[in-house]
């Protein structure tokens, strides 16, 4: 069975105030060509179809067009789940009607959970569509209050699957989670850490022939070749400049035989970091393509009149201009430091911010106010 | 052919800070029972499915459930259009996929316009699904800049239909507009009046066997029995207290023979205006049902401590409390005056407000600022 695996479309994404919708439409056209050429038996979209609960209407239109073409014109079954950025309630609209046309869009886990089974000449393949859910939701479904972490929730789900299905057949897990050992970038939102950690252990999936993951934006395998993130369809931050975006094509012949190929996606405009002196940059040769989305690091020390305005005449899509020489403590911050900072829980991040601004520690009373505000926000965001 | 005609569901509606979603779920259950009992050949929903462009998720869920049941369980074809409250782009999600399952949800007029044709033993019935559109959109589609008003837009559409289809067959117009002579209530939003008037002349529809309209909340016929508003499914303001909500069942035997029946909808809580002295009201007999949504007019003149708190112990769903004796100039305002005021264009309404507050006429410069702000808002609202 030929499976095309993609994830993290983030339709409606805004990067530095620029809507990515046109770039997304461009790359989805390319994606369609790949589907037409490769003729997979099924397309998997492993969550984060949209970038937020209430996406802009252009994003709704783009997803609508894309799914409609896949189903009506290309006639390929589509298996999709919601990720942590999607609104399960809003994406559920029409989901039951879509099923009759081979568009399976799973937004919620229920007690009536069942995989989608598709047959080929070697027998059935069972696709387990597991949308992003909070551990508490799994605890509720299985009436098991001991489930507190994503790890425990996944254990419970897999236990359930292994108990009810014949694991000597081919099973594919489609999920949206953070597998321990995965490489992060700047644009993934942290998953909830109620149970202390957002991570799930890759070894849980040993019984699955293929694990199609969404959430991390870099295409990668974890532990073995068949536990994979397809990665996002586009770069969504400058921390992703060195990624090579792609979709993953899997050929699943039998339970333990599975070939994997990455098919590159080439964006209309790449993300690129360029560094140099103003006069050099103005010559127009600094970027691979002048139209690329650029983070420009200016090395000049003196005053330059309206450098952004002038540089944009040469490179129209500069997203960020950094006066490297003028911001000494910022310029030194390495990606590692950035990552370390990014790993902080919101409360720790706020405490550090408070410390820096007030030159004093965050008092306990304020700390607990901030804590409950963060909790409220999380619940609200989740409930949208 | 048996046609069940409804409109103006306004899912997600908020009246005096109360979400109507539970009441809407209740009445849609009743609607479903009617569909099951009457077994129509087709269900028409003539616009304003939602109350606004971005409805709350509970409303999305309710519409999803309702349409899914109609299609998957009751197996009745559904013909729906968007009204002036709906977002065409957002409701278009999945629309092309739904068509294969006999859910026709028309959100946009295009040059490729075609009716939906359904056959019975007497031949075809052509349903013309005309979503709410601005006159400018019709002007664009037909490349005719002379189209400025809803009247002209409708004329053009009907001209197109009469030219391309055999009008000796049965044709049904499904539209969302304001037919001249219709009775308004407080809860309809004014349609755009770019061409000077929002009205469309009922005589335009002479060639149609039945005209299924949405927009006005009171069930009514205009000029002849077969040009009808089904009315909203619930009362959505106190100006509608005397309405009798219903759905309309039409039996269309041949081109000129059509029987019409109104099937009542009985709400969980009715809207009611009650008037009296505090002590009388507290006896609990003032309303038809204590649970009704009430507008209470208190006749007492003196001070009463927390009348709302006390009255709500008896009548839990008071939406509005009016101290009639204490607000002499408000109390005198009749429904006619209210309607007259409501008929003012936003600019005139603002001018009147300015006059009342500043005791001076709105200067021309400010007038034009307000004018362009109103225009901006309209465009934005439309584009959402």
UniProtKB/TrEMBL annotation, chains A, B:
Coiled coil: none annotated. SUPFAM superfamilies: Metallo-dependent phosphatases. Residues 268-356 form the Nuclease SbcCD subunit D C-terminal domain. Pfam families: Metallophos, SbcD_C. GO terms for biological process: DNA recombination; DNA replication. Belongs to the SbcD family. PANTHER family: COMPONENT OF ATP-DEPENDENT DSDNA EXONUCLEASE, NUCLEASE SBCCD SUBUNIT D. Heterodimer of SbcC and SbcD. This is Nuclease SbcCD subunit D. The lineage of its organism: Bacteria, Bacillati, Bacillota, Bacilli, Bacillales.
């Amino acid at each position: 069975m030929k499976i095309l695996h993609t994830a993290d479309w983030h339709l409606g994404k805004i990067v530095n105030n620029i809507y990515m919708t046109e770039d997304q439409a461009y790359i989805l056209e390319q994606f369609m060509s790949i589907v037409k050429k490769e003729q997979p038996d099924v397309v998997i979209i492993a969550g984060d179809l949209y970038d937020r609960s209430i996406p802009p209407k252009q994003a709704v239109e783009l997803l609508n067009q894309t799914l409609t073409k896949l189903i009506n014109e290309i006639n390929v079954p589509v298996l999709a789940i919601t990720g942590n950025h999607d609104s399960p309630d809003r994406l559920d609209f029409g989901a039951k009607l879509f099923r009759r046309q081979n568009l399976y869009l799973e937004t919620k886990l229920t007690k009536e959970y069942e995989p989608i089974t598709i047959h080929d000449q070697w027998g059935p393949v069972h696709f387990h569509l597991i949308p992003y859910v909070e551990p508490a939701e799994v605890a509720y479904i299985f009436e098991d209050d001991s489930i507190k972490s994503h790890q425990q929730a996944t254990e419970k789900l897999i236990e359930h699957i292994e108990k009810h299905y014949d694991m000597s057949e081919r099973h594919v897990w489609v999920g949206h989670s953070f597998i321990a050992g995965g490489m992060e970038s700047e644009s993934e939102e942290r998953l909830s850490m109620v149970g202390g950690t957002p991570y799930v252990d890759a070894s849980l999936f040993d019984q699955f022939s293929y694990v199609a993951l969404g959430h991390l934006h870099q295409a990668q395998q974890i532990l073995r070749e068949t536990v994979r993130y397809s990665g996002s369809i586009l770069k969504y931050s400058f921390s992703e400049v060195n990624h090579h975006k792609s979709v993953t094509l899997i050929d699943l012949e039998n339970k333990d035989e599975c070939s994997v190929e990455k098919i590159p996606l080439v964006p209309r405009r790449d993300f690129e970091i360029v560094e140099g002196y103003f006069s050099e940059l103005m010559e127009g040769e600094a970027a691979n393509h002048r139209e690329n989305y650029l983070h420009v690091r200016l090395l000049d020390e003196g005053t330059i009149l309206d450098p952004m305005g002038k540089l944009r005449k040469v490179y129209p899509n500069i997203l960020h201009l950094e006066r490297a020489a003028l911001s000494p403590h910022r310029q030194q911050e390495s990606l590692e430091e950035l990552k370390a900072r990014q790993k902080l829980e919101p409360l720790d991040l706020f405490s550090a911010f408070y410390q820096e601004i007030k030159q004093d520690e965050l008092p306990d009373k304020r700390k607990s106010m901030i804590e409950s505000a963060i909790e409220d926000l999380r619940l609200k965001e989740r409930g949208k």
